[in-house]
């Protein structure tokens, strides 16, 4: 079964930074556009950022200018650099294809709190 593995979450103070990583099977990573999603407490899962190629990225308005998505083809790994984190960014973060057709991984918990 195809499986992604997210990592890099943790507890951070408001204004802090974290870098998330997601290991993706090569057969998927090299063929598909990828994305990050998140699900906050009591909320629906929502799309955060997507990457179509090395330079083709887009972001949800609520993270634009603060988060950066990137991918490393040598490592089959998707990244999400998160700066200026705010309390409302607290969520479990997941990666998937842009179409969201992979089984969802465990996600990685990001908690922003002072």
Description:
It is a single chain. The chain is mostly beta strands and 114 residues long. It has one helix and ten strands. Strands 2-10-9-4-5-6 form a six-stranded mixed beta sheet, with no helix packed on it. A four-stranded antiparallel beta sheet has the order 1-3-8-7, with no helix packed on it. A hairpin with a 5-residue loop joins strand 5 and strand 6. The longest helix has 4 residues, at 26-29. It is globular. The relative contact order is 0.33. The model has no long low-confidence stretch (mean pLDDT 95).
Write the SSE topology:
Blueprint: E1 5-7, E2 10-12, E3 18-23, H1 26-29, E4 34-39, E5 46-51, E6 57-59, E7 67-72, E8 77-82, E9 91-97, E10 108-112
Parallel strand pairs: 2-10
Antiparallel strand pairs: 1-3, 3-8, 4-5, 4-9, 5-6, 7-8, 9-10
């Amino acid at each position: 079964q195809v499986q992604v593995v997210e990592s890099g979450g943790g507890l951070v103070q408001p204004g802090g930074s974290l870098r998330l990583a997601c290991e993706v099977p090569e057969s998927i990573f090299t063929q598909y556009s990828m994305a990050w999603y998140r699900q906050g407490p009591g909320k629906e899962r929502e799309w955060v950022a997507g990457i179509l190629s090395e330079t083709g990225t887009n972001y949800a308005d609520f993270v634009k200018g603060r988060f950066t998505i990137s991918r490393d083809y040598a490592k089959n790994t998707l990244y999400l650099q998160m700066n200026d984190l705010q309390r409302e960014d607290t969520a479990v973060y997941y990666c998937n294809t842009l179409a969201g057709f992979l089984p969802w991984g465990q996600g990685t918990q990001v908690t922003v709190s002072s």
